[in-house]
Amino acid sequence: MSLNDLKIGWIGAGKMGGPMSRNLVAAGAEVIVFDPVAANVEAVVAGGAQAGASNQDLAQRADIVVSMIPNDVVLRSIALGDDGILATMKSGATYLDMSTVSPQASAEISADAEAKGIGYVRAPVSGSTVLAEAATLTIMASGPKASYEKCVPLFEVLGAQNFYLGDSEQARYLKLVVNLLVGTTGAVLAEALTLGRKGGLDWQQMLDVIGVSAAASPYVQYNLAPLKARDFSALFTTEQMVKDSRLIRDAGEATGVPLAIGQAMLQMFEDTIETGYGEENLTAAIKMLESKSGLDEI
Question: Which active-site residues does the annotation give?
Fold first, then answer.
């Protein structure tokens, strides 16, 4: 099945869903889009998409319904119940959720989708808004294999690579695993750089050395240029990191896995929000720690 054979309904055209849906339109896909923010819809329609009247409207018309939404609450509200898309989608259609949500909420969607004869694919992504714009996201997918294969033409447009992980909630857990690594790296980087400044190191030189050291992970490399410029513009906000950190904490509790480092990570980013940097990039934890350490802004 090719992209041209599919009618795609897209729910959620914000920071990530906007560029992703526009990339599908640019690739020649027939896309019907809905978002509660009219300007988000207009930005996708400007590229050639159709505007849906509602989630239910596009769900009735699409072969694959994709959602890119903020959290468990929104996922349940758009998918479940008499007004949810699963109640209005065609039997045999595919529901593809690409959001970062809990395995528990996702399992509820799976049970309802299966009961209604709808293939449910979980496919959260790793990558920032920049990678969404460039269509170079990493896509982690799980769900019924046949339904996954229907989604592959979309994945080939939206990402640099995609991985099929199994028929259940494996993709949800892998996304949390990746974000635990990203968040803890960001947290310890904030502590390390603040300690270095307090010890008299030059900011630029310290980052140069870290960039060629054994600690220079892809995440660190990706952040070197904005950190050198002291640019904390949001690619992935501290508020988003707290939301995902809480999902990680809850998943640890549900599975009986102690996550002491994950809990410390959550506390750091909650402190960063309390200091007023919630809408800035998660690296703004550096500014929070510098302030607590008595360091002036560079």
Answer: 175
